[in-house]
Write a structure and sequence with these properties.
- By secondary structure, this protein is α/β, with parallel strands linked by helices.
- It has two domains: 186 residues, Rossmann fold (3-Layer(aba) Sandwich), CATH 3.40.50.10860; 159 residues, 3-Layer(aba) Sandwich (Rossmann fold), CATH 3.40.50.720.
- The chain contains 18 helices and twelve strands.
- It has a seven-stranded mixed sheet with strand order 9-8-7-6-10-11-12.
């Protein structure tokens, strides 16, 4: 049995039933055997055994009261996975699907994603099984205050800097920050995604989507192509999908799909500025139903309970959630002429789908590389907070574009170094891992 398989078997026993976390570990470990062979010092120091074990796992109770006076109890999480290269950094997710396994998978991915940005940020993730759906602003505020009343003990500008994720946008970040400031009396850059009038960065909401498209554009350039004239299928309709749609259209592509928990819409005419603005209205409504789009625009058809991967397209950008693209979806996309898949959500594809896509030879980037624009912009917000500066949108956009190009080039360089030319999955896993592993070696047994 290989060393990586030996360690993975141990991880399975120690984390039984945590399927999402085990999937994330398996996906990274599948790339690391040649790295361990080349660097036996990693095995000697048990780097793999250490990197899969979070430095700290915090689970806590969040009691809160709804507008009718009824008491509810949710569970809060913060998994501080690895701080070898900087303060913990990673989002907070408020969604009914949140479990410890989900948070651990996201935190594990975040280690390597943050490493790839070249910014000094460790990996973490957090959240709660609280859902903002059908909750009033007052109820959400009370929950956020209860959540932060415990979390504040474990975070700080140079310790752990959370951000937003699914269910945590500008409104929630505001409530969380207000409570943190009240409890600590510190006005510091402890959360990113803040309001622009009080320490936030321009472009943060759209950064993940923009970064995804910048990365995909770099992939297309390796084939002498661009987004000009491309038909693009996008899933989701939150911040990532919104940013990606904006940037695709700006670069000359046509976005024909969006999706939600209820199904997907196909708009043959493609999205435009009016339709993208309606996306913002849909997201703000809290209904979480993409069929509203088809009721507003007659050019769109709604497909209930389905995902958008059966549509003919040149480029697919999954931007909704984990495992949203399975083996059959991958085969359908390839059969219909898709030549490039860029993950905008974390671990968008199942392991089986990944194998189909990689075996096909089409362009494919894993989320830890192509969706790193969000945390990169969060890192830029941290820098601005530290320097008490505010950069223009153009400055942030230029820095973001350069970071995404750097990640793209690092993936290609690393994959070529190990004889895996143009394998973005291998390149992202190895490049992200080596930086963290070397830092762990140099800092001793901690």
């Amino acid at each position: 049995m290989s060393y990586t398989n030996e360690v993975f078997e141990s991880v399975k026993k120690r984390n039984a039933g945590e399927n999402e976390f085990l999937q994330a570990v398996r996906e990274v470990f599948d790339s690391l055997e040649p790295v361990i062979e080349k660097h036996p010092e990693y095995r000697t120091a048990n780097i793999l055994e250490r990197i899969v074990e979070p430095e700290r796992q915090i689970i806590f109770r969040v009691p809160w009261m709804d507008d009718k006076g009824k008491v509810h109890v949710n569970r809060g999480f913060r998994v501080q996975f690895n701080s070898a290269i900087g303060p913990y950094k990673g989002g907070l997710r408020f969604h009914s699907s949140v479990t410890l396994s989900i948070i651990k998978f996201l935190g594990f991915e975040q280690i390597f994603k943050n490493s790839l940005t070249t910014l000094p940020m460790g990996g973490a993730k957090g959240g709660s099984d609280f859902s903002i759906r059908n909750r009033t602003d007052a109820e959400i505020m009370r929950f956020c205050q209860g959540f932060m009343s415990e979390l504040y003990r474990h975070i700080g500008a140079d310790i752990d800097v959370p951000a937003g994720d699914i269910g945590v946008g500008g409104r929630e970040i505001g409530f969380l920050y207000g409570q943190y400031k009240k409890l600590t009396t510190n006005f510091e850059g402890v959360l990113t995604g803040k309001g622009q009038k009080w320490g936030g960065s321009l472009m943060r909401p759209e950064a993940t989507g923009y970064g995804l498209v910048y990365f995909a554009d770099e992939m297309l350039k390796t084939k002498g192509e661009s987004f000009e004239g491309k038909i693009v299928a996008i899933s989701g309709f939150g911040n990532v999908a919104w940013g990606a749609a904006q940037k695709v259209i700006e670069l000359g592509g046509k976005v024909v799909t969006l999706s939600g928990p209820d199904g997907f819409i196909y708009d043959e005419k493609g999205l435009d500025e009016e339709k993208i603005n309606f996306m913002l209205d849909m997201r703000a409504s809290g209904r979480d139903e993409v069929k509203d789009y088809s009721e507003k625009f007659t050019s769109a058809k709604f497909y209930a309970g389905k995902r958008p991967w059966s549509v003919k397209c040149n480029v697919a950008l999954p931007c909704a959630t984990q495992n949203e693209l399975d083996e059959n979806d991958a085969k359908e996309l390839i059969k219909n002429g898709c030549k490039c898949i860029g993950e905008g959500s974390n671990l968008s594809s199942t392991l089986e789908a990944m194998k189909v896509i990689r075996d096909s030879g089409i362009l494919y980037s894993p989320g830890k590389a192509s969706n790193a624009g969000g945390v990169a912009c969060s890192g830029l917000e941290m820098s601005q907070n530290s320097m008490r500066l505010s950069w223009s949108k153009e400055e942030v956009d230029t820095k973001l574009k350069n970071i995404m190009k750097s990640i793209h080039d690092e993936c290609l360089t690393t994959s070529k170094e190990y004889g895996r030319k143009n394998d973005y999955v291998f390149g992202a896993n190895v490049a992200g891992f080596k930086k963290v592993a070397d830092a762990m070696l140099e800092q001793g047994l901690v």
